[in-house]
C-alpha cells in the first residue's frame, strides 16, 4: 500500500495529519470543550417531521444571511411515523427509536424561515419528489448568490452511489413568509475518484459527501470542502510513524486502526459559477484515528483558517476515543499545515453522561454553534431515552489562537443572521 507521501506525492500540498498522538489528548468532560447538558424536556420543532443536519443560508464568504429580514435554514428531514403499523412494536407502542434510526434512508431537504432567528416555521421541501436523482438527499450547503435571490444548493445525492451535486433555485419573500422556487434541475458535479478519495468499490462503508463551497478570503478563488475517506482498498491502509505521531512508550500498537481512514477533501472550481470542479488531495487525513470527518467547514478569523468537522465515538480507531461532537484544526494558509485546536482537535463534545445528546455541529463565523438533538436520557441509568430530531440549544465558543472555549448558551435553534440582504 502506498504511503501518504507516495499517494499525494505530485500534489501541490501534502495533507495535514490528525495523528493518534493528537487524539490521545482528547478528553471528554473538559468544561471548556463540552456542550452543556441538554435537558430531556426540550421542545420539538415539529411533530410531523424529524430534522437533523441544519444548513443555514449563507454567502460564499461564510456569512449567515437573512433575506428581507427573514432568516432561512435548510434541514435534512424525514417524516415521523407515529401511526404507521411498520413502526408499532409488539406492545402497540410507537417505536420512535427505530423510526429515527431509519431516517437516513429517506432524508429529504426541507427549508424553514423565521423573523427572529429561532421559532422556525416549516416552509416545505426544497425539491419536488422526483427531482433529485437518488433516494437520499444528504447534507450540503445553500448559498445565496446575489440580490436577485438566486440560491445554489450544493448537496449529496446518495443511493445509488454518492455524488456531489447542485441545484439552482430562488428564494422569494413576502410579508408572510419565504418560499423556494425553481430547484428543478440537479447537476452532478463529481464523485470519489479511487485515487485520492475512496470509492464504494474500494470500501462499501466509504464516505463521500457534505459539500461546503467557499471563496478563499486570500485569493478570492472558489473552493469546496467535503467529507471523504483516503483512497485504497479497505484494510490496505498503512498506519505508520507519521499517522501514529509522538506517542509515549506502550502506545505503538495500532490494532486494527487501518480500517479508519477519514479525510477532509477539497476541490477547486475551474469556472466562476462552480459548475466545473477539480478534486485536490485532502487537506487533512485521519488514517488510523477516525473513519468519519463529516460536514467539514471553515471559519475565517484573525487571518487564519479554522477548519471544523464533526465526528463520532463509534468511528474512532482501536486505542483512541473521544466524544461525539465537533473537532477543529487551524492553519495560516488554506493548504495548511493544520494543527489540532486545543492540542487534541476536540472543540465541543457531548458530556459523557449524555453521549448522544447532540450532533452535526456547525460553527458559524460569529462563534455560535448550532446542532440537533439526537437522544437524551430520561432516567439515571441512561436506559430510557427521549429521541430528539429537533434543534439543540445554540452554544457560543470563543476562538483564540489555537484554543477554543465554551462561553455561552442560547435558545434552541438560535441562528441569527450576520447580514441581511434586501432582494431586488
Ligand atoms: C451527519 C451526516 C452527514 C450526512 C447525513 C446523512 O449527521 O452523517 O454526513 O450527509 O448525516 O443523514
Automatic annotation (TrEMBL):
Enzyme nomenclature, EC number: 2.4.1.10
Q: Which residues form the active site?
A: 53 (nucleophile), 294 (proton donor/acceptor)
User: Pfam families, alphabetically?
Assistant: Glyco_hydro_68
Q: Which GO terms describe its biological process?
A: carbohydrate utilization
Please give the family membership noted in the entry.
Belongs to the glycosyl hydrolase 68 family.
Q: Does the keyword tRNA-binding apply?
A: no
Q: Which residues bind Ca(2+)?
A: 210, 291
Q: Positions of the site: Transition state stabilizer?
A: 210
InterPro entries in the record, alphabetically?
Glyco_hydro_68, Glyco_hydro_beta-prop_sf
The cofactors it requires, by name, are: Ca(2+)
Q: Which SUPFAM superfamilies match?
A: Arabinanase/levansucrase/invertase (SSF75005)
Q: Name one GO molecular function term.
A: hydrolase activity
Q: The organism sits in which domain of life?
A: Bacteria
Q: Which reaction does it catalyse?
A: [6)-beta-D-fructofuranosyl-(2->](n) alpha-D-glucopyranoside + sucrose = [6)-beta-D-fructofuranosyl-(2->](n+1) alpha-D-glucopyranoside + D-glucose
* Protein name listed in UniProt: levansucrase
The residues listed in the UniProt record as binding substrate, with positions renumbered to this chain, are: 52, 139, 215-216, 292-294
Q: List UniProt keywords, sorted A-Z.
A: Calcium, Carbohydrate metabolism, Glycosyltransferase, Hydrolase, Metal-binding, Transferase
Amino acid at each position: 500500500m502506498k504511503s501518504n507521501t507516495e499517494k499525494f506525492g505530485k500534489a501541490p500540498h501534502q495533507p495535514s495529519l490528525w495523528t493518534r498522538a493528537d487524539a490521545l489528548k482528547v478528553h471528554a468532560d473538559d468544561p471548556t470543550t463540552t456542550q452543556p447538558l441538554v435537558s430531556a424536556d426540550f421542545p420539538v420543532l415539529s411533530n410531523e417531521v424529524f430534522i437533523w443536519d441544519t444548513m443555514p443560508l449563507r454567502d460564499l464568504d461564510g456569512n449567515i444571511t437573512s433575506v428581507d429580514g427573514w432568516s432561512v435554514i435548510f434541514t435534512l428531514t424525514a417524516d415521523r411515523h407515529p401511526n404507521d403499523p411498520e413502526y408499532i412494536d409488539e406492545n402497540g407502542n410507537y417505536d420512535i427509536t427505530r423510526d429515527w434510526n431509519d431516517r437516513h434512508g429517506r432524508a429529504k431537504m426541507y427549508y424553514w424561515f423565521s423573523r427572529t432567528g429561532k421559532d422556525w416555521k416549516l416552509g416545505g421541501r426544497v425539491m419536488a419528489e422526483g427531482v433529485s436523482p437518488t433516494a437520499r438527499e444528504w447534507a450540503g450547503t445553500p448559498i445565496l448568490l446575489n440580490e436577485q435571490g438566486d440560491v445554489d444548493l450544493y448537496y449529496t445525492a446518495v443511493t445509488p452511489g454518492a455524488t456531489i451535486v447542485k441545484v439552482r433555485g430562488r428564494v422569494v419573500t413576502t410579508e408572510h413568509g419565504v418560499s423556494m422556487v425553481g430547484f428543478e434541475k440537479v447537476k452532478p458535479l463529481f464523485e470519489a475518484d479511487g485515487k485520492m478519495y475512496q470509492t464504494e468499490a474500494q470500501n462499501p462503508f466509504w464516505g463521500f459527501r457534505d459539500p461546503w463551497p467557499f471563496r478563499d478570503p486570500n485569493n478570492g478563488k472558489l473552493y469546496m470542502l467535503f467529507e471523504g475517506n483516503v483512497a485504497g482498498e479497505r484494510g490496505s491502509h498503512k498506519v505508520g510513524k507519521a499517522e501514529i505521531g509522538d506517542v509515549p512508550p506502550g502506545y505503538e500498537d495500532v490494532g486494527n486502526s487501518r480500517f479508519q481512514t477519514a479525510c477532509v477533501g477539497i476541490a477547486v472550481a475551474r469556472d466562476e459559477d462552480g459548475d466545473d470542479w477539480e478534486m485536490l488531495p485532502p487537506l487533512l487525513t485521519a488514517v488510523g484515528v477516525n473513519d468519519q470527518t463529516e460536514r467539514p467547514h471553515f471559519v475565517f478569523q484573525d487571518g487564519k483558517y479554522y477548519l471544523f468537522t464533526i465526528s463520532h465515538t463509534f468511528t474512532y480507531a482501536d486505542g483512541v476515543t473521544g466524544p461525539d461532537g465537533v473537532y477543529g484544526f487551524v492553519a495560516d494558509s488554506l493548504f495548511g499545515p493544520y494543527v489540532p485546536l486545543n492540542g487534541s482537535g476536540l472543540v465541543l463534545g457531548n458530556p459523557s453522561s449524555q453521549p448522544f445528546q447532540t450532533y452535526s455541529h456547525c460553527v458559524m463565523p460569529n462563534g455560535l454553534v448550532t446542532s440537533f438533538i439526537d437522544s437524551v436520557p430520561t432516567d439515571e441509568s441512561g436506559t430510557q431515552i427521549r429521541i430528539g430530531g429537533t434543534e439543540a440549544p445554540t452554544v457560543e465558543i470563543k476562538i483564540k489562537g489555537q484554543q477554543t472555549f465554551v462561553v455561552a448558551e442560547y435558545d434552541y435553534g438560535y441562528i441569527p443572521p450576520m447580514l441581511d440582504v434586501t432582494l431586488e
